[in-house]
Write the structure tokens for this entry.
Amino acid sequence: MSRRSVAVGLIQETASDDRAANLDRTVTKIREAASRGAQIIALQELFNAPYFCKSLKLDRFDLAEPVAGETIAVLRKLAAELAVVLVVPFYERQAAGLYRNSASVIDADGTLLGTYRKMHIPHDPLFEEKYYFAPGDVTGDERTHTHPGINGFRMWRTKYADIGVLICWDQWYPEAARITSLLGAEILFYPTAIGWHPAEKSEFGTAQVEAWRTMQRSHAIANGVFVASPNRVGLEPEAGTDGIEFFGQSFIADPFGRYLAEAGTDPEVLVANCDLGLIEDTRRNWPFLRDRRIDAYAPILQRWLGT
């Protein structure tokens, strides 16, 4: 059996109020990842601004820009120059009053392949996302030969691998990982902005990180795919609160859930080689997809089955 390998890069960074500086710093880190051999490079959720959802402020809608805006244009040129695939999460203005938490996929020739819009939108203290984002639309069957999708979930055939993108809160839902894997994704990317409430860190901090990592590694194992999760880092203040300490600890895992690369809590560039032949090996020995009882799963479409 012939085997393919792809080098995956993740950018783990801070973000300041200077969006131009954030973009410039990210371009530098993308160049670093490419110089180390990365072929597909993913950025963290909402990479070019501080995590602005910590409170409800009308002027923060001004941070949004269209897919055809400057950020994607700059990174399309960079992707073509470096011959790398980029996963670019950003705050999207789709129309007047309609905003999304999105990630565009740019192929290695600079072609914009499409944009995924976050399906699961959280509402928690300092994570007021329902105010800022409309969820991704369930648009029915979107299957095409090159980039299949269904009900808002997508897969893209890039130059180097078939990939799926899910964003942050999506990572807690096995249904999202399963559907995207069934569409043919070999690597699931999870751009993320997750961190600690400082007052809770001593009691819950370690458990929160382990839960976050374990959940995503379980998607790799259950679906026989690679998982790559770039998170942001740094303490981001918010008036009247202790802010959020984004904990980083980005990682790349193989279909056995083994770590191929791990970051700490500082800005970092991760690069790991992913042997895509391991997907076939894993699924032959752990044939979870073969043994699924698809005739028995209709109840999962219900919100609750108890009395």
User: Anything to note?
Assistant: The chain has one domain: 10-301. The mean pLDDT is 96. DSSP finds six helices and 17 strands in the chain. The helical segments are 19-35, 70-82, 129-132, 174-182, 201-223, 277-285.
